[in-house]
Design brief:
Largest sheet: 3 strands, mixed
Strand content: 5-15%
Number of helices: 9
Shape: elongated
Strand order of the largest sheet: 1-2-3
Number of strands: 3
Structural class: mainly alpha
């Protein structure tokens, strides 16, 4: 257990440090060559830094034991943080989209494509390396916070790759007979990237809000739980469940004439669910004749 906690903290800490370095580099380089896309990349990394620090704090809060004030623990902190991440990233995308449209209406922006290519190349390699590490860490320690962090860096990797491709096209335009169109490369890239990226944080927020509203878990997860319950003689219609962060809340309805001992049944269920990356909270109720 302590090893998995240390691995999660290490992954989140590395993500925060990397986000800080990319934010500094992106904002500095973007201001130097006056590029909207690179400024967006730096701003996104700065947001990622703040959200990574928030994830580190949330990872500690989630592990706190249940108390009198929080009898079911602090599992809801995880989807709450993920929802905040999604909303903030959505706002960054909307602001960047508005800036790019304004630049298009003003006649484009002249950007030094060769300098932008240097930054984009380094950014692609760096972001992809962090994403690969987080993917490795999440495979060994399943965590909603690591999944959200991994999605952030995947978005940053795709953004950097799109910037590299876009400035490659801009450099080619500068050398061709269509050099006058090169000034539109930067805002056009920003519009395409913002419009595409905005779907990812919206889905992330929607999923987190569903958890906070105690919606039923995904069909894939529910099937795993039902398989475990089938082995102790319970049918799917006897169970209501909701997954909130690392916590799984289950209400099990037993017939009035059920002959077994409820505490023994609860212990059997917990043993069958121990391979799932959740902390079950089981509630039993007997149906009235």
């Amino acid at each position: 257990m302590f090893k998995s906690i240390a691995r999660e903290n290490m992954a989140l800490s590395l993500s925060a440090v990397a986000a800080g370095l990319f934010a500094l580099a992106g904002i500095t380089w973007g201001l130097w060559i006056d590029s909207l896309v690179i400024l967006f990349d730096g701003a996104y990394s700065l947001v990622s830094l703040m959200l990574s620090l928030l994830s580190l704090y949330a990872a500690r809060v989630v592990r706190r034991p249940a108390s009198k004030e929080y009898p079911f623990g602090h599992g809801a902190v995880e989807p709450l943080v993920i929802a905040i991440k999604g909303l903030v990233i959505t706002l960054v995308c909307l602001l960047s989209l508005a800036s790019a449209i304004a630049a298009m209406l003003e006649g484009g922006r002249a950007v030094s494509a060769d300098r932008a290519l240097v930054f984009a190349s380094v950014s692609v390699l760096g972001c992809a390396a962090v994403w690969v590490y987080l993917n490795w860490a999440e495979c060994r320690e399943s965590s909603g916070l690591l999944v959200a962090e991994k999605r952030q860096w995947f978005m940053d990797s795709v953004l950097s790759a799109a910037v590299l491709l876009g400035f490659g096209i801009a450099w080619w335009l500068e050398q061709s007979a269509w050099s006058a169109w090169a000034v539109y490369a930067d805002p056009v890239m920003m519009i395409v990237i913002s419009a595409y990226f905005i779907l990812v944080p919206i889905k992330m927020t929607a999923g987190a809000v569903r958890e906070l509203m105690l919606a039923a878990p995904s069909a894939e997860f529910a099937e795993e739980v039902h398989e475990a319950l089938h082995s102790v003689g319970l049918a799917p219609e006897q169970v209501k469940m909701a997954k909130v962060g690392p916590s799984l809340m289950m209400e099990i309805s037993l017939p009035a004439n059920w002959p077994g001992h409820s505490e023994r049944l609860k212990g059997n269920i917990l043993r069958h669910l121990e391979d799932l990356p959740v902390r079950p909270a089981i509630f039993m109720r007997r149906l009235i004749r």
